[in-house]
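## tool: complex_structure
## caller: assistant
## args:
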Amino acid sequence: MRFTWLREFWEYRELFLFLVWRDVKIRYKQTALGALWAIIQPFATMIIFTIFFGRMAKMPSDGIPYPVFSYSALLPWTYFSTSLGLSGNSLVANANLIRRVYFPRVAIPAASALGGLVDFSIAFVVLIGMLFYYKIPLSFGLLLWPVFMVPMVILTLGLGMILSSLNVKYRDVKYAIPFFIQSLLFITPIIYPTSVVPERFRFLLSLNPLTGMVEGFRGAMLPTRSIDFEMVWMSVGIIFVIFTAGAIYFRRTEREFADVI
Amino acid sequence: MARAIKADNLSKRFRIGMLQHETMLREVLVGMIKHPFSRIRPKKEFIWALRDVGFEVDTGEVMGIIGRNGAGKSTLLKVLSRITYPTTGSATVKGRVSSLLEVGTGFHEELTGRENVFLNGSILGMKKKEIVRKMDAIIDFAGVKKFVDTPMKRYSSGMKLRLGFAVAAHLEADVLLVDEVLAVGDADFQRKCLRAMDDLRTGGRTVLFVSHNMSAVENLCPRAIWIEGGRIVEDGEAKTVIHNYLSTFAQEAKSGYDLSQIESRSGNGAARFTAIEFLDDQGNPTGLIRSGEKMTVRLHFRVNETVKHPHFGFKIFSDTGALVTTISTWATRLEIPQLTPGEDYIDLHVDFLNLMPARYYVSLSLQSVGRLRYDILDHCAVFDVEAADVYGTGRGLDGRWGVMYMPGRWTYRQLPDPDRGEGEG
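## result:
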């Protein structure tokens, strides 16, 4: 069953790529700043965080300049939050396609999850610039960033499948999605390092798969820091569970989409 | 001959109100907290959109599907194209299926014409290579060459429609499901579409064609099935099926029809038509109106739930099923803020019925500006138009001359021609 699902998705890969292309293109066409938006969003957030948390609240940042500390976490975070927001609303937003044409429904939330990678890549270039500015030597670990994005995409797609499908059935889910995403921001070490969290809460924090991933991204960026692979693997495991649950739920509900959307 | 489509005992059940009422997660959660142990669920009512539908279509066959609104035609196409799933039974379609349930699906205003062709083509199942190869032909067919690189928001609705059909007409599907694409567009473009459909037929493709335009069905399809209330009533030679279908329409012209008992209707039922009356210019009921006279149509309806900003629509069809005209409260700008529960009626005053003597069929609709449809009735009443001496010559009119007559006159004045003058002299 699962196998035919994948094979069918492969048959429709061109449509899927067109949907990704459409999402990205439309987003850049609709904003006056176009692709610059991809940089402004995490960069402006980084400035605000630096002023309020770095300067005023004197938040420790593991010896890394606070702007680099927060920006490096904001990149995967911005990818995750933006893409999940889009993915969660994607089925409802494409209702007229679903009502009229057949194609594997998963292509829609998946296109939103993948489209965010373009923004991410653009914003990544700025990170390199910041490393130069703060005279932090480039680490080979940076090559791990694209690898770490794989579980990030899978996590976004897994949650996206659940939220978008719930959204078709229950129309108030759309109001819950931003709240859900915002809550995650605070239980993920973006503003603060994991090291400020008391030892006994660390395990709870690590149940959030974003924790291990964000710390992994930071660790990979710096030549002086080692990556906590144990945390990363734990995150990957949780992500796999979430993705499987999402795929099963989506598979069970997708037959009804055209009737209820 | 090989079989292209096989439908076996197809049935499809819908929950009533599934589309109108938006379920809230909040309500479900509150319900679970209030009644944690009982699984109390709101009573569900179902309707069967399809009931034991079975047929086979051979490869290369072109088959029409006819029936009133809400009969299940569109649901059948949706099941065959896998957009929706049958509740019971199965449908097998061999080869690549493309459905044109609506042209221009997935068009986006911000993208250019060319970009939209790529997107729409791939949504309809074309490969990228194929689209590249056919791009020029598609743009040519649509006649939008000058605007291919302009964002679609600058297109007129006619241009969008033409581009949408142009993409569809270039599909290389083995089985093509077509729903009512010909209902829109100007006459010139409609002819083009019919020609394209004709090419499809000769191209060896299997085509299922749903339409209310009986002459188009008769022209294009050797075979037709007639669906009523989700069941197949008749399956056979298009000409015979269409004849039998049309003869079930309100049989004789009467001054009034009771509409409350009609079952083949669509819409959510918040308001329902209950009767229609034809009144002459004195306000007396009549089933027979003379060409050129005044006519008042009184539509009685019952409102079950308060309905906001309703629009009434009145359509006239000829006896071959061609749409003659539509007049709605939207077009004539009669704003009705709301209808409250109870019985009521609305009058349509026709100042001047310029129809040729013949039999005409009436369809009614009651809907809101948006997606909500309250009641849609197809061919629910008949009226006869009788010849009148509209030109004041005592010669009358003849139904064979067309559908409408034009008030007008001829003038002729012989040109002063020197040659002719000489010849006479």
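## assistant note: Chain B has a mean pLDDT of 83. The CA atoms of residues 31 and 42 of chain B lie 10 Å apart. Handing back to user.
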